[in-house]
Design goal:
Layout lengths: L3 H14 L9 E8 L2 E5 L8 E4 L5 E7 L4 E5 L11 E8 L1 E3 L8 E2 L17 E3 L22 H6 L9 E4 L5 H10 L6 E8 L3 H13 L6 E6 L5 H20 L3 E7 L1 H14 L13 H9 L13 E9 L8 H9 L2 E5 L1 H5 L12 E2 L2 H4 L2 H24 L7 H17 L9 H12 L11 H15 L1 H10 L4 H21 L1
Parallel strand pairs: 8-12, 10-14, 10-15, 11-12, 11-13, 13-14
Antiparallel strand pairs: 1-2, 1-6, 2-5, 3-4, 3-6, 4-5, 7-9, 15-16
Helix pairs in contact: 5-6, 7-8, 11-12, 11-13, 12-13, 13-15, 14-15, 14-16
Length: about 500
Amino acid sequence: MINADEIAGILKAQILNARTQVQEDEVGTVIEVGDGVARVYGLSAVGLNELVQFPNGLFGIAFNLEEDNVGVVIMGPDVEIKEGATVRRTGKIISVPVGDGVIGRVVDPLGQPLDDKGPVKTTRTRPIETQAPSVVQRQPVHEPMQTGIKAIDGLVPIGRGQRELIIGDRQTGKTALAIDSIINQKGKGVICIYVAIGQKASTVAQLYKIFTDAGAMDYTTIVAANSGDPASLRYIAPYAGCAMGQELMYAGKHVLIIYDDLSKHAQAYREISLVLRRPPGREAYPGDIFYLHSRLLERAAKLSDELGAGSLTALPIIETQQGDVSAYIPTNLISITDGQIYLETGLFFNGIRPAIDVGLSVSRVGGNAQTKAMKAVAGQLRLELSQYRDLAAFSKLASDLDKATQAQLSRGEKITETLKQPQFEPLDLDQQVVQIYVAVNDQLADVPTTDIHRFHKRFYEFLKTTAPGILSTIADSKTLSDDTKKQLNSSIAEFKQRFSKSA
């Protein structure tokens, strides 16, 4: 017998417990595609910088929100995308994997691994575009970021949380400074991120080998958007690297990030903007080119103690054309950063390397972060060098010079020789202080210029064996007391006798 009431009861129970899953997808249609950009019709509710997905799995960023279509920058090759293809909204802003899992890896700007170490082991992600820390969330820069380069740590010191621009013509040693700064962070508790924008893949591979050989890859991440990659990847690369750095900064860690270089970043943004038909301005760059870099570099900061006191130090690199620092992009970056290290072609070809122009290079906050030991010797160093430069220019016109002028020229020449430094050989603080102290106190007057590097090297070895207390005092206390100076002077006198005999 069929019981109608029982059947009705079962049906009612099923209706009450029924769950309907309706998924709403907003889709659009590609109406035009080319040059790494697609115009999409139908995505009326899409947000700025929102990720959209194409049928072949490629993603794009909603870049131009126009009245009847959306300009989408494609994050990869556009050859497989055809007119009429459907485009789906994801509802997500472009993000990259962050955390300790990215340290020691080579990744692209989307966080995909480019090395052979398997997938990036992290579950955390962070939007590439985030708000910079506010004034209240920061504290003044007061800790030194040692680069290991005498000319920088002595004359244009960098502090943790600072933004110091490295500027100069091509092939003047800009990347070399950045590499030495990263190598010098070994054992200092600083995590490094190197963002390669528009460089050859072979150059990035060479860089990876240098870092690996120096043991620097243990604490370094390389974010690579090579010259063969689409402009979209070159455009997001520095923001992706900065997001990785910010995550570590908010975790209370210290981070050094290199953007190499922002000239190519600006060119990638100009390329995208012109293809999307944004109005061009000076040098064909779009009107918001200043905002492009200011919103990136403002994210470098020294956080307050309440937020963990972490720091993100930025060293952006910019390339000039024939030393023209008054060009559009260089002047923009000079006004955003806290100082610049200017590398001069003439100095480079005269064998003065690093080719830092002391007159044009400046650090607006690094002096506050300089150690007392370095401050004690570096104040005199800048004065001696500026006087030497003036005298050297004047002495070319004069035929005979008095003894005092000749002595000052000789001292300036010896100091300039002392500041020369081979690549991939960053120095510890104690070694830098000792070398600069010897030079500025006129202890090299009777040492031939050609022997200066040998003198410094052997004197440091002499101190390590006969008076290691001097070096450990400088390294630990980071000060140069009167007592240490007396010990140093007696050690110099003793060593000079041995050096003159051995010479």
